Amino acid sequence: MRILPLVLIVLLTCYAPDDVQARTGQGMLQGAHADSSIMPKSCRACHKGMRMAINGEEDSCLSCHGSSYSRSVMQARGYLNGNAGLADIGQELQKPYRHPVLEYRNIHRQSEVLPEEEMTISRHSECVDCHDPHLVSKDEPYAGLYGKRFGKSKADITEEYQLCYRCHSDSRNLPGHSTNKHAEFRTTNRSYHPVEGEGASEFIISLKEPYAARQERPGDISIITCSSCHGNDDPSGPSGPHGSIYAGLLKYNYEMRDGVRESEYSYALCYECHERNSILGDESFPYHSLHITGRNNQEGTSCFTCHDAHGSVRYSSLIRFNEDVVDPLPSGKMEFKTVSGNSRSGSCTLVCHGVTHNDQKY
Predict the structure, then answer these.
(1) 217: Cβ–Cβ under 8 A, 6 or more apart, which residues?
(2) At a CB cut-off of 8 Å and minimum separation 6, what does 93 contact?
(3) What is the pLDDT of residues 89-138, one digit of tens each?
(4) DSSP state of 123
(5) pLDDT of amino acid 320
(6) Is pLDDT above 90 for 270?
(7) Which of 63, 165, 230, 310 would bridge 184 by S-S if both were Cys, CB 3.0 to 4.6 A apart?
(8) pLDDT at residue 85 above 90?
């Protein structure tokens, strides 16, 4: 067997066998990693011998995107410019809630298809699932990755949610506790947070400026992104959903347990966009305060008990009941109604905390 010279191996790794090269008509190495002022030795910074193949690609990534000590080693060897200003992503990946980049090795395959089409394929999360190291740049973090698929054709990612959908939408191997986020955010749903497009409601009284149901003035924000809620809990740290101290890889605390005392901290995620005084003042729903704060020395229930933060196929106002807390009537009936879409007038039919609501009007 003929052994390829090291120089040829390096060149082959810099021109990955992907049709991106055919689409661009250029070599694969572009973007930030092609900048000689950042990486003076180019491909050799990542492709040193067989290190990537043996140790896993995250080790190569964290040589520069990890601890300050790792970066100093790369700088001393001339692989990294000392003024690169990189953050420690490795530290983020060790937080209590994180993408499990460090947990698994040797699962990712270059030829894999996302979303996964087979139930038996092992789920994983590697750096290259979200970033193409040959094309990524600060201004184009998703460059080189595909989002939508139309039969055998694939389209480039143009919106952040398309990146998230690669693993969190139509994958056949979704864990039992996971749901299809694309199905929940569809603009054809009865209600949804405005990720794929502006929301179903034309006016939401509790929204803080600059958030608005419709963009009517310059500066209005009527469409949010997955990273509006999911990401680093430390605003001064590196951006992105690498890790967080909050459950759900959220940027702010959101109590989903029942019976937790209401506070600005308990529902900080919701209160980032929705005015707390408006919610507790019952401006959008006449019993918001009662439900959230409770009564007779009994703590209230979580926003999560009644609302799904992604979307609801069946109901307005993001209503989708948490069935760990809410039960149907003995007849099996459980529903929420509004009068002409007015959230201040309607009825509930369900059992909550042992209290039966049988077409309970409000």
Answers:
(1) none
(2) 99, 101, 102, 242, 243
(3) 999 999 999 999 999 888 888 788 889 989 999 999 999 999 999 999 98
(4) P
(5) 96
(6) yes
(7) 310
(8) no
Cβ distance 191 to 185 under 8 Å?
A: no
Residue 258 contacts residue 325 (beta carbons within 8 Å): yes
- Cα gap 254→268, rounded to integer Å: 6
CB contact set of 324 (below 8 Å; sequence gap of 6+):
258
Burial 257-272 (b: 16+ CB within 10 A, else e): ebebebeeebbbbbbe
Cα–Cα distance measured from residue 57 to residue 79, given in angstroms and rounded to the nearest whole number: 17
Provide mean pLDDT across the span 328-349.
87
Are 157 and 124 in contact by the 8 Å Cβ rule? The answer is no
Cα(49)–Cα(53) distance, integer angstroms? 9
DSSP state of 111: T
Q: Are 338 and 201 in contact (CB under 8 A)?
A: no
Strand partners, 312: 191
- CB under 8 Å to 19, separation ≥6 — which residues? none
Q: Is the pLDDT of residue 50 over 70?
A: no
- pTM attached to this predicted model: 0.89
Tokens for 87, please give them: 């953050």
Give the Cα separation of 281 and 199 in Å (integer). 23
pLDDT, averaged across the chain: 89
